[in-house]
Amino acid sequence: MRFDNPIYNHGFVFPDIADFPDVAHEPKYQGNGKEESVSIMKEAIQKNDLNMFQNGYQYYMKDVDTKLFNKLNNMFQFYSNFEDNKIENNLPSNNVYTDLFEQGISYLKLDIKELRDKIDDEIKNLIVLPDWRPPPGQFDRAKQLGPDIVKLVNDMFQSYGILQGASKYNKGHNLTVRNVVLHIAKPTDENYKQFLYDCKTVTKTTNLHIDPKENVMKAMMYLNDITIDDGPFSYVEKSNRWIYDDLQNIFGRAISTGSYCHTPQSRSTVFQLPKVCRVSHNFGRLLQDDTEEQERILEQEKPFTSDKGNVCVFDPAGMHRGGICKTGTRIALQILMK
């Protein structure tokens, strides 16, 4: 979220997970969401009172889910002083910064031949792996690359001004490349359906999401030519600036990391909550096809194909997704800066 360049009238409303057609028959809290405990949680956010916040959600969640409780507490604490910790730095502006500030994403064309040659063997080994159904949280075909590649990417990003622009945008300390993952996507992949994994309905916006924790920046680097059929990365431009309800922001981020809602049991914990709290920042699958809400998002979603470049730098607090291939294969590096 950008408190220095915010957009309030974006019109987006996080859908209720329990309204998804495949799970609508499952038991859920039927209250009207106006109960005192919702007000208590909202007041707790304003007062930065974690104990009050805990009392609020524990009123509903009689079946204890320690993992989700911890995620809620962590998100509450992280966002309690998130805006205050965003301190301007003195780095000069550049095109990457300007793009990020206005759109949330910047497109570049880099010379990647040396890097591509260094990981060619890794690509050959990964691309032949057989299809499987990965558990929630894992890709179908991916490998974390070693420190030599991390350093090479960091040096590249330094020389092209990417670290400068991303650091100025993110504010605070200067960013460096910390993690590089080689990811190969194919039409047979399953990982993009892991939220509500046991359900059959796959909507046009499946896997559109907002990363749960901010204060990091990311980049996607293509290692082969990518068309609209090859699972391009896509981004809802300017959505990095959208401001959401504080309560839903905390619950949406906590649930997206604390529960994939992939079984009736995992959903039952979340469904104890009132409607306003039954939200996830992994919301794309919940938007029903051909509805006004979904069409409005699809109109704003912009695919990143190779005619725009081979690297995009983006704020993961904006809506994004990728790797959903129609016919081709996408070979890419997912890069984390912090």
Top keywords for this entry?
single chain, 33% helix, alpha+beta
Mean pLDDT: 95
Measure the end-to-end span: 16 Å
SSE-based structural type: alpha+beta
Q: Which ranges are low-confidence, i.e. pLDDT below 50, for 5 or more consecutive residues?
A: none
Q: Helical residue percent?
A: 25-40%
Strands in their spatial order, largest beta sheet: 1-7-4-9-3-2
The rounded Rg comes to 20 Å
Shape: globular
Strand residues, percent:
5-15%
- Helix-strand sequence: HHHHEHHEHHEEEHHHEEEE
Number of helices: 11
Largest sheet: 6 strands, antiparallel
**DSSP summary, beta strand count:** 9
Protein described:
This protein has 338 residues and is an alpha+beta fold. The chain has helices at residues 36-47, 50-60, 66-80, 95-103, 113-118, 120-127, 147-159, 162-170, 246-258, 264-270, 292-300, and strands spanning 105-108, 142-144, 177-185, 217-222, 233-236, 301-304, 311-314, 320-321, 330-337. Strands 1-7-4-9-3-2 form a six-stranded antiparallel sheet. Helix 1 packs antiparallel against helix 2 (50-60) and helix 4 packs across helix 8 (162-170). The longest helix has 15 residues, at 66-80. It starts with 35 loop residues before the first helix and ends with a strand.
Q: How would you concisely characterize the structure shown here?
A:
This protein is α+β, with helices and mostly antiparallel strands and 338 residues long.
What is the element layout, followed by pairings?
Elements: H1 36-47, H2 50-60, H3 66-80, H4 95-103, E1 105-108, H5 113-118, H6 120-127, E2 142-144, H7 147-159, H8 162-170, E3 177-185, E4 217-222, E5 233-236, H9 246-258, H10 264-270, H11 292-300, E6 301-304, E7 311-314, E8 320-321, E9 330-337
